[in-house]
Amino acid sequence: MHKYIFECKKIEKHFYRGKEKLRVLDNINFKQVQGTSTAVIGPSGSGKTTFLHILAGLDSPSSGEVLFKSKNLKEITENKRAEFRNKEIGFVYQFHHLLPELTSLENVSLPIMISGKEKEEAFIKSRSLLNKVGLSERINHTPSELSGGERQRVAIARALSNTPSCLIMDEPTGDLDSFNAMAVTDVVLNLARDFNLSIILATHDASLSKELDNTFNL
Fold it and tell me: How far is Cα 129 from Cα 26, in angstroms, rounded to an integer?
């Protein structure tokens, strides 16, 4: 077993606006032990979302290396990167991005079926995940029939649908009131324990960050 799920070495990310070079991440070094949780904190504009996208393989650094379980993501093919994103990483955005015409059960099942599983097998697993996040009574509701906190919990269940090694979350409580934020926090902590998940999340929520094992300041 690899000790570190992620190792980042001298990560830089920049963009160009005309001839002006905009540096978003500068010489970032980061390690996370498997099975632990880290809150990524920092002011707005510090590059938290960009950093999470690079970890998840949704973006590439301008320079530096990202190692996942000792494997350099820069050295694998695009097909393998897609497989990595599908099987190893569960990503939860601040806004849930659920498909509005699908029920909770169907939203969670979709990635499982895309990975090649039969519909009935996908539904069995999705029911279990929705039960884990406290939504067993809401499986046939569409997103418009759910509260903000419930929608985010469906998104978390969907992110776990292919049994990833790491759950990466971008401001998961940022759009929620305090009651729903606490409910989502409890769900995340319980899932981390139940599934032995590695968790990396960006947050401005001090009550959430203090519950995690580590803090990484950008």
Answer: 38
